[in-house]
Amino acid sequence: MKKATVFVLMLALSMSLVFAQGSKEKAVRPEVVKLQVWYAISGASGEQFLALAKAFDAARSDIELELTYSGSYADTATKVSAAMLSGDAPDTAIMAAGQLYTGGRGDYSMEALVKDPSFNVNDIFKGMLEYGMFEGRIAAVPYGISSQVLYYNKNITDKAGLDLEKNPPATWAEFYQIAKTAMEKGNVNNSADFYGFDTSDGVWLFKSMLGQNGNEVVRKVNGRVQPVYQETSGVEVGKFWKSLIDANLMPAGQHNNAEKKFLAGNLAFIAASSNRVARWQGNTNFKLGAIMMPGFKNRSIALGGNVGVILTEDTFKRDASWELLKYLLEEKNHTSFALSTGYLPVRKSAQNGEVVKEALAANPLYKIAFDQLDNAWAYYHFSEMGTMDSFFWYALDEIEKNVSTVEVALQKAADSLVKEIE
Amino acid sequence: MREKSSAMRIHRVTILGKRYESAQVRAAAVLLLPTLIAIILLFLIPVVQVVAYSFTNYNLTTGMKAYNGLANYEYLFTDDRFFKAIRNTFTFATLKLVIDTSLALAIALMLDSAIPLKKYLRSAYFAPVVVPVVASSLIWIWFFDPGIGPFNQILSALGLPTSEWLYHEDTALLSILMFSIWKGLGYNVVLFLAGLQNIPTSYIEAAQVDGAKAYQVLFKIKLPLLRPIISFVLMIGIINTFKVFAEVNVMTPKGGPLYSTALMVNYIYDTAFTSGRMGRACSASIILFLIIFALTIIQTKLDARKTISLE
Amino acid sequence: MAKKLKRMSIPIFLILLLGSIAMIFPFVWMILSAFKTVPDVYAYPPKWLPSSWKFNNYVKVFQMIPFAKYYFNSIFTSTVQTAIQLFLSVTAAYALVVLDFPGKKFLLSLIRSTMFVPIVVTLIPLYLLVSKAKMIDTYAGIILPQVFAAFTIFLLVSFFSTIPQILYDSAKLDGCGYYRILSEVVIPNSKSPISTAMLFSFLGHWKSYTWPLIVTNKATYRTLPIGMKYLVQESSSEYQIMMAASVMAILPVLIVYLFFEKQLVKSITLTGLKA
Question: What are phi and psi of B239, to 5 degrees?
């Protein structure tokens, strides 16, 4: 029995050693407030954000930041939800707009915070502010906002005899013809896998197109959110989408591969996020160009990107988080962030600064994204918006692969959404 | 274990009608305690919880947790994506099982003959098994790239039609299957090889003296003696096939073109962690578990019948 | 006689050789591509050999993600997991083979049945349990839920069963209690299978993906497979960086494997035969 006891004791000891790792510190002293900040911005843009955040950390001796890159938008959303369950959530997060808004949990304290005079909320573009709303109320502040831009491979368009700077398309119908010409005459690599147009985010582009055709995606009716994309204006967009596939201008179901194709020189036009400007500048083995997105009835652009949310309920931490967000959104800080990453400036005053004007003149590609700002909008954000995106994805898949007609696919997505909302 | 040793007096106890040595029972209790705790904490309790949650609308994002009866199961039975996942799983499992086993057997039989470089060959076939899935998935994603990947390049060099591999609903699952087989083949090959090498050469020589041809040796001697290994491979195969997750998750993140590559495991993971609907995911897990359970029972029963008929 | 056999087997040899090339071709490609430049990657028609050997890709991997930390985490968690798992398995296997006690058969089938439960089924409650115990983003959280593996137990059971009864009997005659039999008879005679089980266990933990994915948020605790997934997201158009990372992730495993190959194969063999 003695042996057994020693045995069990040793077992317990070894287990507790491992367990000791698991205890968490709960240090919160008002003198130095420690903040857990997670951000979902990757790559070069992430580094820019990190630099800014660290500058804030260095400047404020009473606030200490612990910064973590938490993965893609989807992964971050999952992790934050899971962390909230266990009380492990970060205090602040820069993450994608979605059901995790504080609004989703009934916390609209951001509404009061933005009234802070040093924040100057009136300086923020209306569309951007909308992007930070949940069910019509402010629940987050816009941070890394982007829109889609139509990039093109100049080598291909040159070969096809197209001059896009002189004659950019204003409507999608015009674009259709241009893409067709590019495809017929512009195959610089003589590749068998050559296409005229694709997008790396079909759902985003589709939403933009809906807006351009007068469709607001969803609408609140009698206190309930209803999908409206299955109405006629939506179906028209779907039909145009399908016509691109039917004419073999766009490959079916290959959006995940679109950027690779473009970089390989086998795609003439691509609709991708404005923040690709930072990534692709100087890294392509062809000349890169960009034009404004054509439209249907109007040329509005749906915004996408990430927002800053405050998740903590501790007063000190909340105040500290607000200080951080204000710093990040100060005009010069945020503008330098935007210019170096291809995100859009959120403040109207940024447009008028000399620095910005020079930078834009020097780099026409950024100019395109900024020019689209006046037309930017955000659709109504609600709890199931993430799931709605999934339904859009499936619907587009079905439309592209010719499994259902446009009406059926969109109706199905609408019905599924209604089911989820219940 | 009754011993008539004069050195120790053996204390016995009767538990549930059988006689045991109390020293053994005590030792067993102590030695097995950690394992028992592990099983209870890591399996029993979770499984019970999963059953319980499957009847709630537990949602990760809103935190609500209320009993909602069979609502989750109802949703699953009307969700054609769920059925697609089940269908994909069965297709994938059947093909993988059949190909893995027969191909491995063929390779093992070939390796068992008089050829040079046996050691190198065996290592080559086994190497993909030890490699982390994520790393090898990345390589294969590149291979499958329709534009710049080597597979299509080789195909067109040979004058054959190219494929869209992971991007077309007809070929996506098969592409993942190819990868999965490449990854798992070596394991079965080694098992079969061991079994073959365990067959005494005297049996084979005796048969050859009797004038048996090669294929007779194969069917009358080798295969029957390999039977226990074959059923072991099949059983492990069924279990492992239903656990396939990483490669689908890495290679076709949204369930693939027209949801053609999502397996049940992926459906559960996406429902639980991407959509946050834990309750529904638990219901789907229960269904998956029941399916696996049923299959293994079927396999054991078939196996038992075969062994009896042999004797 | 021997010459005749060799002549007949050449077609078989060639088939196998071709097959083996198919098996290791991905590794060769990976190593070559890890040295390529971006234009090489996107060259059309695809290039096989790099135009210039860029060792810089490896450096870039370390710049893009904290690769060294991930490496360390993988090594640390795999080692500790293996140690604990071995401890559990040796004790359990010994008890199951040598000792007789009520409920033995039941326990055996209980252990066997855990093999049928895919990790996805237990993932959710385990995650909730770990998060309630505040073990998310801790080494304990990564390690503890993965310490149980029925496979290792059965592996050792089949080995321990081969130890001749004589050794037990003589130990008992010497007055050994059951614990001493474990430490003085069973373990010394099973050095090879135990080290093989250890190897298998380590390899399995090194590769584990699903659980560490869920249970770690912070980069400081991520293991290599998860780190690689993030690398994919960060560098989605830079294949050559991903290949460099893959090389670093795979090569050590391959080396360990080649070193221990004989033992590994022997242990799989014995599990299969006794099952």
Answer: -60, -50
